[in-house]
Structure formats: C-alpha cells, structure tokens
Design brief:
By secondary structure, the chain is an all-alpha fold. Helix 3 packs across helix 12, helix 4 crosses helix 5 and helix 7 runs antiparallel to helix 13.
C-alpha cells in the first residue's frame, strides 16, 4: 500500500461515511478498482488494508465526536442526572437510553452476519446490488416522507428500535448505514434533520467498538512493524477532516433538499459496479 492509495481511501471514507451512499461499498469499489488497475487479484486483501479500513473509520469517528461534542455532553450529563434522580422524563436522558438500547440491538443484528460481511469484501458485484437496494430504499422513504404533513423532531423508542435494526443490517457492505437509518427514521415520520442527527449519534458506540476492539481480535499485532504507518496516519487524518466537513454540509443539505439525489446516485453506481465486475 502506498500513500496515494491510502489518501484516496481516506477521502472516500470521509465523504461516504456520513453521506447515505455506503462507505463500505465505496471502500470495496475503490480498493478493487485500484487492484484492477494494478493487476492485483480482486480476491486478495492484506491485513494492512484491513487495519487501514479500521483507522479510516476511527478518523470519521473523531469527526462526529467533534461536530456533536455539545450534544454528546448534554446527553451524558442528562443521563447521569436521570440515574441519580431515577427520573428519565427529560428528552436528552431518553436519547441516551435510546442510543444504549440501539447499540445493543445493532450488535445483536450485526454479529451473526460477520462472516458474510467479511466475504462480501471480495464480491463487488453483490455489493453493487446491495447499493442499488440502498438507493431504492432512500427514494421510497423520501417519497413517503413527502406525503406526511406533520413530522416529529423527537426520537421515540419505536423509532430507535427500527433504526437500530437498520444499522445492524448495514454491517453488510453495500447497505449504507446512514442511508438505511435515516430512511427508516423518515418512515417513522421524523424530519430529515432529526433523522440524520440521531443516525450520526447512534453510530458513535458502534464505530468506537469496531475501531478499538476489532483490531485486537482480528489483527496480528506482530505484523504492525511492516505497515506503512505514515500513509495510514495521514489517510486517517484526511478521513477525519473530510468527514467533519461532510457532516457540516450534509446537515444543511438535508434541511433543504430531498435525499432522492443520493438514492439515484446509489442506483447508478451500484448498477455500474455490478456490470463492470461481472464483465471483468
């Protein structure tokens, strides 16, 4: 892995983690296209590439922590006070509970699919097909949301459960985590901004767990010495910076415009990916 490849992956991760276009799908597509250009077998993936993927997600985790630092502080403060008073009626305290419940549900849904998800990294055709599904789901949820005259900006328990299930399913490459969770919240009659905000906040524990725990379970630490650490660190920083800017402008976008644009994008890219790697 060289610096150019790492930087390219960092930019792709930063852009696609929070946009509803599936960061996992774009990392698979980008990585495999690079291998095609370099005449490297698509089926191969080194431990360094796996570790880079983890570090890129850590970069975008830092981005969402920084962007929502005030909201996170308020939720933690309210949750602690609620535990002391044994009163969970305050909305931020409820949000803390919903995020905890949602994280547990996500793990329960995602864990059984771990082996399948790992195999799909080598199947860009299938990933392309799942990206198409993400696109249709975005368009359908947006069309439904437009028909709802009154939308809520408050997350409730039912919404948190359905959104968490969607986040768990997004463990499969090609299913956009933000796309599925935001769309599900829209189907639960929430407005776009509230849906996007909750989607990003709910992602924090999962990305944190994957970034901190996964390396020690799946990566052979003895191989660290041979890694291109300069490229890994720089690409992680790039993913964080791009991710922060992406959150900032995406929130402004969803406040004014339809998510169908991203749905059409997913459908087009998914079809092109499936066709290209079928013919390759």
């Amino acid at each position: 892995m060289n610096l150019f490849q790492a930087l390219m992956m960092g930019i792709v991760q930063g852009l696609s983690e929070f946009l509803p276009i599936s960061s996992s799908a774009h990392l698979v597509i980008t990585s495999n296209l690079y291998k095609v250009l370099k005449n490297v077998p698509v089926q191969s993936e080194t431990s360094q590439e796996i570790f880079l993927d983890i570090m890129l997600h850590l970069g975008t985790l830092i981005a969402v922590l920084v962007f929502y630092r005030k909201d996170i502080a308020e939720i933690i403060k309210s949750l602690v006070n609620a535990v002391k008073r044994k009163d969970f009626t305050e909305y931020n305290a409820k949000m803390g509970i919903y995020i905890i419940i949602g994280t547990v549900i996500t793990v329960v849904v995602a864990f059984p699919m771990e082996k399948v998800a790992e195999k799909l990294v080598y199947s860009p055709v299938i990933v392309g097909g799942m990206l198409v599904f993400t696109g249709f789901y975005l368009c359908i949820s947006e069309a439904y949301s437009k028909k709802i005259s009154e939308k809520s900006n408050k997350i409730d328990l039912k919404t948190s459960i359905f959104v968490a299930i969607s986040q768990g399913l997004a463990a499969l490459p090609g299913f956009s985590r933000s796309g599925l969770t935001i769309s599900t919240a829209l189907l639960c009659k929430k407005d776009r901004i509230s849906a996007a905000k909750y989607s990003f906040l709910l992602s924090i524990p999962i990305i944190l767990g994957a970034s901190m725990v996964y390396p020690f379970l799946k990566i052979d630490i003895s191989e660290f010495q041979g890694y291109n650490w300069g490229a890994i660190i720089i690409s992680s920083i790039v993913s964080g910076i791009v991710g922060y800017l992406c959150i900032k402008y995406f929130i402004k976008f969803v406040g004014k415009y339809s998510l169908s644009f991203f749905g059409y994008y997913c459908i087009i890219i998914g079809v092109l990916t499936a066709v290209f790697f079928t013919l390759y």
